[in-house]
């Protein structure tokens, strides 16, 4: 293959809806590289990068030699130590694949962020054999508690602001934060994106009790824990 497939952007958007933007980007970049090498990956950056900045980030890193995922669940697991319930906001299947098995005994719910198409939650959750359960925005408050935590995926941070799915702002509002023990951000990119973060919104890094996975971060730490009133 010497040129990009037709409708590649549409295909990426559909895949990102059920895999997550970073997970879909890694899959597409691997396939493009196998078909046309770094030249085709670079063409994807040029043609689709501004519309899909996470794809641009992953493709750019691939061209510069970063072929393996940086995802390490250990820091996230440590940040969630002691919880019994976890609500994950947003979808990244690569991260979930290496993460959910590291939390035995923890009840885990998933609020997926629609992107392009509404994800087929039955198909998404079938890969986790009942470990994850779907949670709607009208149901998430039943997950609050002293041993409950919120987790979302972060797409780069400059140490002051972090880019997250818009659903995070609807879930982790000021009235909700004190009702969870921890609010954890897992940076699945590790560095800021090169281009404007379309499809994402900004949140303050200090709103998280822990922000893991980031290479660049502020020296100012957020609060250690968020506990509901007794």
Sequence-ordered SSE layout with sheet pairings:
Layout: H1 8-19, H2 21-48, H3 53-63, H4 74-79, E1 85-89, H5 93-99, E2 107-111, H6 121-126, E3 132-134, E4 145-157, E5 161-164, H7 166-171, E6 180-187, E7 201-204, E8 210-212
Parallel strand pairs: 1-2, 1-4, 2-3, 4-6, 6-8
Antiparallel strand pairs: 4-5, 5-7
Helix pairs in contact: 1-2, 2-3
First-last Cα distance: 62 Å
Mean pLDDT: 88
By DSSP, the count of extended strands is 8
The CATH architecture category of the largest domain equals: 3-Layer(aba) Sandwich
Alpha plus pi helix count: 7
Rg result: 17 Å
CATH topology of the largest domain: Rossmann fold
CATH class annotation of the largest domain = Alpha Beta
Low-confidence stretches: 216-230
Report the sheet-strand fraction: 15-25%
Instruction: Please bin the fraction of helical residues.
Output: 25-40%
Largest sheet features: 8 strands, mixed
Keywords, separated by commas or semicolons:
alpha/beta; disordered C terminus; Rossmann fold; 230 residues; 8-stranded mixed β-sheet
Question: If you had to describe this structure to a student in words, what would you say it looks like?
Answer:
The chain folds into 2 domains: 8-63; 74-212, Rossmann fold (3-Layer(aba) Sandwich). Helix 1 (8-19) packs antiparallel against helix 2. With 230 residues, it is of the alpha/beta class. Strands 1, 2, 3, 4, 5, 6, 7 and 8 form an 8-stranded mixed sheet that branches. Helices cover 33% and strands 20% of the residues.
């Amino acid at each position: 293959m010497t040129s990009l497939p037709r409708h590649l952007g549409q295909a990426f958007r559909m895949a990102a809806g059920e895999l997550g933007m970073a997970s879909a980007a890694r899959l597409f970049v691997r396939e493009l590289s196998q078909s046309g090498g770094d030249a085709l990956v670079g063409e994807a950056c040029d043609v689709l990068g501004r519309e899909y900045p996470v794809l641009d980030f992953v493709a750019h890193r691939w061209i510069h030699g970063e072929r393996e995922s940086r995802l390490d669940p250990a820091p996230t697991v440590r940040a969630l130590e002691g919880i019994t319930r976890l609500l994950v906001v947003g979808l990244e299947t690569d991260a979930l694949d290496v993460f959910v098995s590291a939390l035995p005994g923890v009840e885990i719910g998933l609020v997926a962020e629609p992107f392009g198409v509404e994800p087929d939650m039955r198909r998404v959750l079938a890969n986790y054999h009942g470990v994850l359960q779907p949670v709607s925005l009208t149901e998430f408050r039943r997950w609050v508690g002293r041993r409950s935590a919120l987790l979302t995926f972060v797409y780069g941070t400059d140490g002051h602001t972090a880019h997250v799915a818009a659903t995070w702002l609807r879930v982790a509002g000021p009235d909700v934060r004190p009702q969870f023990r921890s609010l954890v951000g897992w940076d699945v990119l590790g560095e800021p994106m090169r281009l404007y973060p379309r499809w994402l919104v900004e949140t303050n890094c200090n709103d998280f009790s822990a922000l893991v996975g980031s290479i660049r971060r502020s020296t100012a730490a957020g609060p250690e824990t968020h506990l509901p009133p007794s």
